[in-house]
Write a structure and sequence with these properties.
This protein folds into 5 domains: 2-142, Beta Barrel (OB fold (Dihydrolipoamide Acetyltransferase, E2P)), CATH 2.40.50; 147-213, OB fold (Dihydrolipoamide Acetyltransferase, E2P) (Beta Barrel), CATH 2.40.50; 235-481 and 553-618, no CATH class; 485-540; 634-732, OB fold (Dihydrolipoamide Acetyltransferase, E2P), CATH 2.40.50. A 5-stranded mixed barrel has the order 3-4-5-7-6. It has a 5-stranded antiparallel β-sheet with strand order 10-9-8-11-12, with helices on one face. α5 (235-243) crosses α7 (307-315) and α13 packs antiparallel against α15. It contains 18 helices and 34 strands. It is 30% helix and 26% strand. It has 741 residues and is α+β, with helices and mostly antiparallel strands.
Length: 741
């Protein structure tokens, strides 16, 4: 690490120019005994893309040679963009070649065999002004995948696999001996044996047959394989799970606070099977309310270095599909001894907090405990008590009604407190896919969200903040849940859009969470509420796991972590382990803290990556189910709103079914349309007709392509002139942007 820093420091000097290895050694003043270390460090830096080796065997920083290191995103039409990485030691915002800067457009003929998701080095070959850059892939640093999922098609003496991912634009040649028994039309998984080259087709070997298109569950199988998600636990992990004690013994209760007599309950969805959080409330002195959030003590059963731990770490999270769940832990734990089922003893970690009338935490304690849940409550059942005042439900849970009403009061206090400090609450409608017994989609409905959901959310947020503050106060390294401030450029673009709707937006200066919170309040009930909330959400950075505390912008929280879901999230399990060690030892030595911190950075990156993979896989399966649901509605007319505008058309989200499709530019026959990126619109040059983000529009469902996962609309009142387009769309850029994105 020290040698790498020396090399990078040398190269960042303004007087540096690309050097040969021997010249680099001389400039570093490296003695003979360190030269092998320097060579190793240089090789690793080249492999990581932090420095590059150019013709003549000279080494330098990419930014000094008009090169960019980043991830390639490929469009289904063949072109792509290299999204630059933030170089080590760079500032948070940069527009130069060496900073995060603008994405680099790459034509299909300049890909040099690179595929979607690959980490590459690209050379910037021309600057087009307004932040637009075009380049060529020079080197592939890291392949995103070594497998392809797709349809096998037979040829004369050979076969091909056509990827189900429209961003993988190559067909993969399958030699006769490598087809693995695949038959024409079957969906398969193939291992790539030769990657694409400029003048040579890629080659692969079929390693798994998934089945025929249309078979029950095949769509989910395809997405699971595309994202490389684990579907089976290792034999060793299953053996360990079976060996775990099935009940809490007296020896396990020793040293724990006994909460078995408390009126503790779990509150989850009707279909939930794993319960990792339970809550209890009681009045405290001075009108305060005491809240106890008890979380399953998964760390007691899943020990570091075990096979269970290895499998859980690899998976990182449970993945929830409409037709199945891929759990992070085997069922013996997730639905058994770790699940806070009613009327049985369970080991837990409890955050006990007292809140005043303004929702401020006035005291807290964190400890190991044992509980016995009084009831397995559902959101619907609790809402019937606290929201609908339903007599039958109140009678059924008569002994707990007072507790639920006190919970509602505390929920309101906590919510008001968060609103005062500027916490951002999105209330976007979430689609719920309803399946029949065969896995066919029968309906797409708005997922219910009531006061019981908000109650649990507030309690879990409070527990997460409390545990994060406790660990930080004792100097214990752990994974924070961080949500960084949004990019200034994105805020400028968002501000222009918001002001165009006559809504308030601060002039200049940094944007704080309270600005978003006020905007969302102003949007409530307005026609553009739904789509603007979506735009606001997408303008923010993604939350991530990291050992460095950068605060949580969305929650307006200075210090935050994930503690409340260790059954389904590995970062929570990691936090539990740090907390349990602190509770046991009272304080940790500097040496021990250093040991804990050493692997947290890598763990945070892995957990953040796997979280994204799981979310993307879940989203893709839902989108496929939506498309299948719409197949018998082709030709129908629907109403929706413009949810996105690009240079090649605009996306429309339907009001009724939560589905989104594309109105292609080529279907707009009445005029030549200009893309005004800054205004988020397509505008007719002669008619002045405009399709703008948020506009209401009536569309006809023209086509559904299940294989490419696309749905095409046409504008309902578009005159059918049949006039072919004579020229491509003229694109007008009012600000730096990305062509075709």
């Amino acid at each position: 690490m020290e040698q790498k820093q020396k090399i990078l420091s040398l190269m960042r000097d303004k007087t540096y120019h690309p050097l040969l290895m021997k010249e680099l050694m001389r400039s570093l003043g490296a003695p003979k005994e360190e030269r092998q270390d320097v060579k190793r460090a240089v090789r690793e830096l080249v492999k990581d893309g932090e420095i590059v080796k150019i013709r003549g065997n000279r080494y330098g920083l990419p930014s000094q040679m008009n090169l960019v290191v980043g991830t390639l995103s490929v469009h289904p039409d063949g072109y792509g963009f290299v999204m630059p990485e933030q170089p080590a030691g760079a500032g948070s915002r940069s527009t130069g070649a060496g900073g995060r800067g603008a994405d680099v457009y790459v034509r299909s003929i300049a890909m040099m065999g690179a595929m979607h998701g690959d980490r590459v080095v690209a050379r910037i070959e021309r600057e087009k002004g307004e932040g637009r850059r075009e380049g060529r892939v020079m080197r592939i640093l890291e392949r995103a995948t070594d497998r392809v999922v797709g349809k096998y098609e037979s040829g004369r003496g050979f076969g091909v696999v056509i990827s189900t991912n429209p961003r993988i634009t190559h067909d993969f040649y399958i030699p006769p001996k490598e087809k693995g028994g695949a038959k024409d039309g079957q969906m398969v998984v193939a291992k790539i044996k030769r990657f694409p080259e400029p003048h040579r087709a890629p080659e692969a070997e079929v390693v798994k047959i998934l089945g025929l298109p249309g078979e029950p569950g095949i769509e989910t199988d395809i997405v699971i394989e595309e994202h490389g998600l684990s579907t089976r636990f290792s034999g060793a992990a299953l053996e360990e799970a079976v060996a775990v004690a099935g009940k809490v013994t007296p020896s396990m209760r020793e040293g724990r606070i006994d909460l078995r007599d408390r009126p503790t309950v779990t509150i989850d969805g009707e279909r939930a099977r794993d319960f990792d959080d339970a809550v209890s409330v009681e009045p405290a002195d001075g009108g305060n309310i005491r809240l106890l959030v008890s979380i399953a003590d998964v760390a007691h059963y899943v020990r570091p270095g075990s096979a269970l731990d290895s499998d859980a770490r690899e998976r990182t999270t449970s993945v929830y599909f409409p037709d199945r769940v891929l759990p992070m832990l085997p069922e013996e734990l997730s639905n058994g001894i770790c699940s806070l089922n009613p009327d049985v003893e369970r080991l837990t970690l409890t955050a006990e907090m007292v809140f005043d009338k303004d929702g401020n935490r006035v005291s807290y304690d964190v400890y190991e405990s044992v509980i016995k849940s009084r009831a397995r409550m559902t959101y619907t059942g609790v809402a019937a008590i606290i929201e609908k005042d339903d007599p039958e439900t109140k009678e059924k849970y008569s002994g707990l009604v007072g507790n639920f009403l006190l919970m509602r009061e505390l929920m309101e206090r906590l919510n008001k407190m968060r609103r005062r400090r500027g916490s951002i609450d999105f209330d976007l409608p979430e689609p719920e896919v309803i399946l029949d017994l065969t896995g066919k989609t029968t309906a797409i409905v708005k997922a219910e969200r009531n006061q019981a959901h908000r109650l649990i959310e507030e309690f879990m947020l409070a527990a997460n903040e409390t545990v994060a503050a406790h660990l930080e106060a004792h100097g214990v390294p752990f994974l924070y849940r961080v949500h960084e401030e949004p990019d200034e450029e994105k805020m400028e673009i968002l501000g222009d859009l918001v002001k165009s709707f006559g809504l308030p937006w601060p002039a200049g200066g940094s944007i704080r969470p309270k600005h978003f919170a006020r905007l969302i309040e102003k949007l409530e009930g307005r026609p553009e509420e739904r789509f603007l909330n979506t735009v606001i959400l997408h303008s923010m950075k993604l939350a991530k796991y990291t050992p460095e505390n950068a605060g949580h912008f969305g929650l307006a929280a200075r210090c935050y972590c994930h503690f409340t879901s260790p059954i389904r999230r590995y970062p929570d399990l990691s936090v539990h382990r740090a907390l349990k060690e602190l509770l046991k030892k009272k304080s940790l030595s500097a040496e021990r803290k250093s040991e804990i911190a050493s692997g947290l950075g890598t763990l945070g990156q892995h957990c953040s990556f796997m979280e994204r993979e799981a979310e993307e896989a879940e989203r893709e399966v839902v989108e496929i189910k939506k498309l299948q649901f719409m197949t018998d509605k082709v030709g129908g007319e629907f109403t929706g709103y413009v949810a996105g505008v690009t240079a090649f058309g605009f996306f429309v989200e339907l009001d009724e079914y939560f589905v989104e499709g594309l109105v292609r530019l080529t279907s707009l026959h009445d005029d030549y349309y200009s893309y005004l990126e800054r205004e988020h619109s397509l505008t007719g040059e002669h008619t002045g007709r405009q399709f703008r983000l948020g506009d209401r529009v009536d569309v006809i469902l023209e086509r559904i392509d299940l294989e490419r996962r696309q749905m095409d609309f046409s504008v309902a009142d578009m005159p059918d002139s049949g006039r072919p387009r004579r020229e491509p769309v003229r694109m007008k850029y009012r600000a730096g942007g990305k062509k075709g994105r």
